[in-house]
Amino acid sequence: MAAAAGDARGCTSDDRGGDDLEAAVRVSLVSAEEAGLEESDGVAFRDLAPADLPALRELQTALFPVRYNDSFYERLFSPGYFTLVGIDAAPPSDGSFEGTAVAGGGALVAVASVRITSDWRVAYIMTLGVDHRYRRRGLGARALRLCLRATCERSRCQLAQLHVKSLNEAAVAFYNSMGFQADEAEGHAGLCRAHYLIEGEPYDAFALKYDLRPLRRDLGEEEGGPYSHYGSSLYSWAQSTCEGGCAIL
Ligand SMILES: CC(C)(COP(=O)(O)OP(=O)(O)OC[C@H]1O[C@@H](n2cnc3c(N)ncnc32)[C@H](O)[C@@H]1OP(=O)(O)O)[C@@H](O)C(=O)NCCC(=O)NCCS
């Protein structure tokens, strides 16, 4: 466990400041079907809703060594942030599944949360995880692909970044398989010494990055970004109009 929520950084949390939130852009989302990421295994992804918070806390407590404080969860609904959650509409009813029920039914079994940096260019993946009973079924890959796609649709970011504990071999293998690369700008082979402080112990992390420009081109976006021809007024409009919206992915 972390000594304090504010001590942990990177993929399990992000300490680069939470006030530069004016980058929020929430625009209409395509459906999961249109995205080619249709529901499978009974798990569907959508934006986090306030009523999901107890289930999200429970899942993140099981997933990460970091204990996130209230301000972390409050920030998830701030401009510049978004969180996708995977909901299993019909979790096992044989008693083997113990928790994380959400309002309206179902269980919260996966999460991916993103913060857009103030220069609107980088999407920082704060958390990504899948309930241990649902792993190795492609859910993590779906969550990551959806959040990269949503980043392209909601912002003009050209790069996704994250930190992952160097000892977390599963996650390192996962991100490698998803095309993430070491971010040499943060250290040789992306290695950041003592990036995390967990229960008073320092842990190294790898800084990883993912170039979003090919994905933007795959999505049919013209060179220069989806909103380049609108100028910043669209950002203000989108922020005031769609902020806090809840979309099904
Ligand atoms: C990392 C994590 C999100 C992967 O989720 P998942 O749903 O099991 O991943 P997927 O099934 O989509 O796996 C996609 C690919 O990633 C790689 N991968 C995933 N888990 C792996 C593991 N334990 N060992 C080796 N490779 C792994 C594989 O290449 C896999 O493809 P394959 O199953 O066809 O071999 C999950 O293990 C997890 O939640 N871990 C705890 C939280 C965490 O550490 N998050 C990352 C840091 S924020």
Could you describe the 3D structure shown?
- This protein has 249 residues and is α+β, with helices and mostly antiparallel strands.
- The protein has one domain: Gcn5-related N-acetyltransferase (GNAT) (Aminopeptidase), CATH 3.40.630.
- It has helices at 53-63, 70-75, 139-154, 169-177, 213-218, 233-242, and strands at residues 43-47, 81-88, 107-116, 122-130, 159-165, 181-182, 191-198, 201-211.
- Strands 1, 2, 3, 4, 5, 6, 7 and 8 form an eight-stranded mixed β-sheet that branches.
- The longest helix has 16 residues, at 139-154.
- The radius of gyration is 17 Å and the shape is globular.
- The two termini are 32 Å apart.
- The model is unreliable at 1-8, 13-38 and 225-249 (pLDDT under 50).
- Bound molecules: coenzyme A.
- The site of coenzyme A (COA) has 21 residues, from strand 4, helix 3 and helix 4.
- This is N-alpha-acetyltransferase 60.
Quick gist of this model?
By secondary structure, the chain is α+β, with helices and mostly antiparallel strands.
CATH-level-2 architecture: 3-Layer(aba) Sandwich
- Could you tell me the mean pLDDT? 78
- Please, what is the CATH homologous superfamily? Gcn5-related N-acetyltransferase (GNAT)
CATH fold naming: Aminopeptidase
- How many structural domains are formed by the residues? 1
How much is the radius of gyration in Å? 17 Å
Heterogens: coenzyme A
What percent of residues are in strands?
A: 15-25%
CATH class: Alpha Beta
What's the quaternary structure here? Answer: single chain
Helical percentage: 10-25%
What is the SS-derived class?
alpha+beta
Largest sheet properties? 8 strands, mixed
Low-confidence stretches: 1-8, 13-38, 225-249
| Helix-strand pattern | EHHEEEHEHEEEHH
Termini separation comes to 32 Å
* Tally of DSSP helical segments: 6
User: Could you tell me the number of beta strands?
Assistant: 8
